[in-house]
Amino acid sequence: MTANEVRLCGLLLREHFGEVVEKVGTHLLKNGPETLRTIIHETGMPLDQVKKSLCVLMQQGACTFCSGRKGPGSPAEYCANGDRILRILRYPRYIYTAKTLYGDTGELIIEELLQRGHLTMSETVKTVADRLTQNMEEGRSMDYSEVSSSFSKLVETHFLQRCPPVGVEKKASSSDNPAPPVTNPESAESFPDCYKVPHVTLIGRGKRPLVTEDGEEQRNAKKRKLDAQAHGDEGIYWQVNFERFHLHFRDQTIISAVANKLDQTSSEIVRTMLRMSEVTTAPLAPSTKPLSANEIFRSLPSSYSIQRQILDQYLSLLVDDPMEFVGKAGESGGGMFVVNLHRALANLARATLESVVQERFGSRSARIFRLLLRTRHLEQKQVEDFAMIPAKEAKEMLYTLVSENLVQLQEVPKTPDYAPSRTFYLYTVNQLPTARMLLQNCYKSVGNLIERRLFETKESKRLLEKSQRIEAILASLQASGAEPEQLTEVEEMITAAEKQQLSALRLHVNKLDSAENQVDETIFLLESYIFSTSLTG
Amino acid sequence: MAGKGRGVAAFTFNIEALGISRGSMPETRVGPSPLFPHTDFKPVPLKDGEDDNYMLALKQEMRGIMQQRPHNIKPLNNKVERYTERYLKKLKVEDEEWTPDWNLFPKELMPQKKKTHSKTDDGTTENSDDEKEKKKENEEEELEEEEVDEEDIEEENDYIESYFDNGEDFAADSDDNMDGEATY
User: Fold this and answer.
1) Mutation choice for A interface testing from B14, B24, B53, B62 by most A CBs within 10 A
2) What ipTM describes this predicted complex?
3) pTM of model > 0.80
4) What phi, psi does A418 have (nearest 5°)?
5) pLDDT in tens, A346-404
6) What kind of fold does domain A344-429 have according to CATH?
7) CB under 8 Å to A444, separation ≥6 — which residues?
8) B13 touches chain A (CB under 8 A)
């Protein structure tokens, strides 16, 4: 991991799990796999805290352990998974996607699983049903069976998967699948039962928490009693399948790119093609399986009312488009078409690079950048001529791009002594390394955004605490049925100036937060592009 | 032979050939660039759609909830409770306890219950199966009847208790609860 990534991981851990976990997490990220003893020795932290932090990290899937790497019987080594920690940044998007696909129930299921790392199906269903009931009108409640059918749907579509068996033998699932003592953590996919929903006996409805004073205790007591019941799925834990979500994001990105580039109808055609090949195409394939125009025509939802000829025209338009989202694989069956998944990612990443240059250095620099992307190598003179920019300005732009590492300089000597007068100086843009650099910049920007947000909140910590306190007092007063005058009196404890300050702070924090979300979209695109090239290259 | 012209400011070739004339040389740089450089181009505004706002709300809610969960471990401090925290604390009651499924994690991470217990488990990774089984049963028993089982005077939750013990017993215990393999 690079320093930027480690820093961002640390910040994310601190925000979500506290400083103690951050310390252990970053220590593991920096130093690689370590045993418990080494961690304690090197961090100088109390044993119990380190143990608890490791449990938290493992519960969240951010850390794995393997034993016996240095021969049988050697102590377990803990290894942090940095990529998994960076996923925290994308949590809102996963939850939102689940909401758009499976409604509120899906949203809450994913949210619970993300918050707690992994859960059994029965625990998830119960918590989600309780939460849904809480938001319903008085007297109504959510049936467990409804939630568990949503859960099964999420599993069927592979958005959820079972946690892979851990190095320790599991008691619960051992009957048909005696987990071998694995030395390395396996990927979830290699586990055969990964998408099998266990038989769960769950009857009942969501419960509303009691609002009385001692409600909390009662609820806890009840919870403990409920937990004692067996549902037949103990020991089978579920986690969110991030890869599946990423495939969905990728498809959505391609669809919306087509909609922006061409029009809504063509994006619907691409959407249909992607949906048809969702099951048949391997997750990491460079393109979808070929589909004939006839098949596509039959699968188009009738509501679009696209004629057969028009579909053919649209398809040939899509094939001719320079973004190469759709390619032609053959002539049979009225033409065979594929969606070029990896090409599309590469082209979208290129467009991202171009727009970054354009927004940071202006459209004329972007012209130079695009020129170099398309023509590979150019001499300085050629750059000036082809970009049609006055020599002096072109030079300045070019040098700025070189100093920002967006453009590389390649020397081609005519003689072995590299004499400048007998050397060609060629300017070039390498898309992949540039994308990598940009990705690192993105990690750095998110780190900076979080740092800034923490700074902003720290600056007005006193004010925030005050407003929180007043809200708490107001709530308790309202609960005890206080006079309205009393309430306004408490409310006035925050002055107008303070109110203004608070709303300004809220505005800043919101801006920084949504900037984080939106930088993550770029991060996703660049990560997928880099990952896809690593598969083909 | 090769020393000719070395260290001499003049170039041995005509720099015009590179397309650099006297007037067109960019300014030389002095020192590192500033920390917050002047930007010629202002950033584009953030997207402000319905879904972006919803995701923003989700993000902030998530952060808030995660900070209240027991997963969020607070650093040890023996400070006196401040008045300012009295009302904030009310928010944090939601499921204070969290017991991980110890079947999934290495046994060495379990919080120590008693000294006698930890004495018996000398090797964490080389346990035989039946020993493990036994231990699991032990755990379950302990989880259920921890109040009865506890020999110390702690109130109810030994988890918290061991969590606050400052790690003083770490030095003394480390040989027992660790793998016991290396003695330095």
Assistant:
1) B62
2) 0.81
3) no
4) 55, 30
5) 999 999 999 999 999 999 999 999 999 999 899 989 999 999 999 989 999 999 999 99
6) Arc Repressor Mutant, subunit A (1.10.10)
7) A4, A7, A8
8) yes
